[in-house]
Amino acid sequence: MSYSSYVDAENEPATVIAVLDHVDRWIYEVYPFGVCSPADGVRTGIEDPHDSKASSFGWHNPLNTITNIYDTTGKNVVVGAHSTVLGGQHPAKSPNESFIFPYVPDIGTLWDFYEAGVTQAFYVTNMLHDLYYILDFTPEAGNFQMNNNGEGGLGNDAVRINVQKNGAFNNGVFFQEVDGRSPEMNIYPFDKTDPMRDSSFEVGILIHEYTHGSKCIQLSDRMTGPPDNRDCLSAFEPDGMAEGWSDFYAAALTVKPEADHNSTYAVSAWGLDNSTTFRLRLYSTDMTTNEYTYSSVNDFNRVHQVGTVWCTMLYEMLWNLIDKHGKNDNPRPDMVNGVPTDGKFLSVKLTTDGFALQPCNPSFVQARDAIIDADVALTGGENACEIWRAFAKRGLGASAVTGEPRADSFDLPGGVR
């Protein structure tokens, strides 16, 4: 047997925080990370998916010595389903390290397969925690985990996730908290089919909500301004951009292996039983499929509409960078000197780094500049042409300015082509 022990030596008396058994294997039967929904792949057993640095204590709490049961009450997220009959939150439980539960799409009731849905949500959100850690959303930056292992920030703030939540349909919300307090994420069923569909299996909504808060962004709001400020994306334009950031992370992290520059992304297509999208337009680099530009925001008064414009710009950047650097279809990036080697993860990394460089309540122009500055800091500006072309194509070029009415600018700065 091989074990690692983690001890709190800062307080008296010293206590053991966790003991990891390196022989035991955690197995989750899920749709693998990156698979959008049951329409796009099959469930499989994923073994030991946690990242040893991002989740050095593992994903689960130690075995409950009273019940001898493991469950989805974990160190980064606490996930359970809500029952309209039984009430309360019900985690998935297992007498061992195998979380393997049956699931048949479009058969039976939501509750018939709640353990599979809870396991899917637990797996995806933990994968996001570990990926965002790799991309520098760490404890010091205000991420979400119970024990920060001496890495700065405040602990005791694992995300509480409620799946099959009653009270609404076709939606999800994220109730933000300051660093050191656990936020809450509610995922509601889709009611567009009979039987209803569990949104735990619509991976895009899990990514969107984990990345995004109801009026803030989990990732960007805690990195835009200090982690103890919940209001740095509260004005109308940045609040709308928050929706766009969440859509972008979902689109980028579920790019299909066969996808290319001409591929589109539809928000919640499976859950809604609709091959189009939950948004006004598909995300696309084709101006006939999605014609939105910076000035389109003038016509909108809802945050999701504004977010669609912002995500459309980021989607252009995603494919410009993939065209230049290629695409890594693995769940985590290959890094060289802190830089992802492929365009998909590089686009996410630059966007993430931009959060820390933009001011509180940024405008479109300021958020664009933060991404450009992030590329200068990370790569020396190697991708300036690809980034500028993406924004300029959608009207946020060099001459674009903040203010109303917004006017399109399709020009590039000097030295960029």
Automatic annotation (TrEMBL):
Gene Ontology CC annotation, any one: extracellular region
Record CDD domains: M36
Main subcellular location of this protein, as a coarse class: secreted
Annotated organism of origin: Clonostachys chloroleuca
Residue intervals passing through the bilayer: none
Active site: E209
Entries under Pfam families matching the protein: Peptidase_M36 (PF02128)
Cofactor: Zn(2+)
InterPro entries reported for this sequence: Fungal_virulence_M36 (IPR050371), Peptidase_M36 (IPR001842), Peptidase_M4/M1_CTD_sf (IPR027268)
Keywords: Hydrolase, Metal-binding, Metalloprotease, Protease, Secreted, Zinc, Zymogen
Cofactor stoichiometry and binding remark: Binds 1 zinc ion per subunit.
Broad EC category: hydrolase
BP-aspect Gene Ontology terms: proteolysis
Domain of life: Eukaryota
Taxonomic classification: Eukaryota, Fungi, Dikarya, Ascomycota, Pezizomycotina
Binding positions for Zn(2+) per the UniProt entry: H208, H212, E243
Family: Belongs to the peptidase M36 family.
GO molecular function: metalloendopeptidase activity; zinc ion binding
Protein name (Swiss-Prot/TrEMBL): Extracellular metalloproteinase
EC number: 3.4.24.-
Location in the cell: Secreted
